[in-house]
What we know:
This protein is mainly beta. The protein has helices at about 25-35, 75-90, 210-220, 290-300, and strands spanning about 20-25, 55-65, 115, 130-135, 140, 165-170, 170-175, 175-180, 190-195, 260, 265, 320, 325-330, 340-345, 350-355, 365-370, 375-380, 395-400, 405-410, 415-425, 440-445, 455-465, 470-474. It contains four helices and 23 strands.
Amino acid sequence: MKFIITLFLISSSLILASQPIQRCHFDEVMQQYKNANPNFIEYQTNQKTRRHLPLVATIPVVVHIVYNTNEQNISNEQIYSQLDVLNKDYRKQNYDILNAPFIFNPLLADTEIEFCLASIDPNNNSTNGINRVQTNNQSFSIQTVDNVKSSLTGGADPWPRDSYLNIWVCELSGLLGMAYPPGIIESLDGVVVGHNYFGTTGTVESPYNLGRTATHEVGHWLNLKHLWGDFGCDSDYCSDTPIQEAPNYDCIGYPMISTCNNIDNSPHGDMFFNFMDYGDDDCLISFTINQTERMQDALLGPRASILSSSGCSGIPNCFIEGTIDMTLEIMTDNFPEETSWKLENTSGIKLYSDSMYTSSNSTYIYSLQVQNDECYTLTFFDSYGDGICCTQGSGYFKLYNQNGDELINGGAFFYENSYSIQVGSLNIIENTKKENPSLIKITDILGQEICKIGNNQIYFYIYNDGSVVKKIIR
């Protein structure tokens, strides 16, 4: 039997650590915007009257890669890794949420908000949701960051904000990312993230290498404030986040006590691990119930139009670009018998698999040969529900293409973790009429196969004639 023990050291001195780069510019830029637009009124609601989503919301995303050098022109894999982080963080499926101080556990929430790379562009053409634009601008600064949102100033023009969440990824100087809340002028709406802080692979740099900058900024886009409000010791309009004096940096310990108006927030202190604080990526791990209500209300209020967007009406994204010859490397943890995996094609046929390993901390190599023009699903399982790394050994799984390039690198998950791998080009046949097409697979928005259907969820039914039907089960 396993025991997972998380130790939170009592420390206050780390809050004084220097912060060489500004994580977010939300408070300052909003004050500037209010000064320049005195008629602007922030969208606020009474917590007691907030509306709640009747089903899981799916937000179409377009990622604009604005690059000056080849390094800034990040890979599709880096983009896909960020979408994976967003979906896990917003659905309370991130593995590190286990590290939250137990006293706060009843307040942590699944936001019931998901994200997909757009499959239909504004002109109703097929797309992968990635827009690449080369610029003469070497970088964008705190003062010029909004220039990335227009081709006239060396950036990329946004797609309609009523149908897409626009995320610009570029070289940012002095800033990790920024976003505006609902209600600002359309030309500024969206999220900006530095390419060094976007996703979990490629050009990312520690300690901002786990995709939490985008998680934080999308929170602002959905009307969340920082935990300390606008100026410190201010309200974030969420009663389940303790009042907080100022940002917390680095990775501090529990409890971190704040004092506001001569009253401290002991005994439990700040919610320093909340996504809307300023800590390192590996220390930001959750949203709360009231934050979830506030974001859902924004989606039913000023951002309601995006819920009826057709931006993700195509086949679920087949994220990773593979090759016909691939190599899978697995290292088991201390409990190898809990580990298994399988590789399936879109027809649900199992092509490769293995299970019931007997040697702990041992490496296994598999040669995988597949066909072109197909989307494959590679799934890893742990029967105990603690993945194959991090707490009980240093297990991992890695997938390489035929050139030896790393496509997948993981190990931290709960019971299972799936990846969709495209080999060659996918020819998706729409509205093909054949007699009695057979259902071969049901997937969620990430292309992961679903065995049990739940209510108020979005599913894609994939048939043997190539057709894909999006259904909401009520």
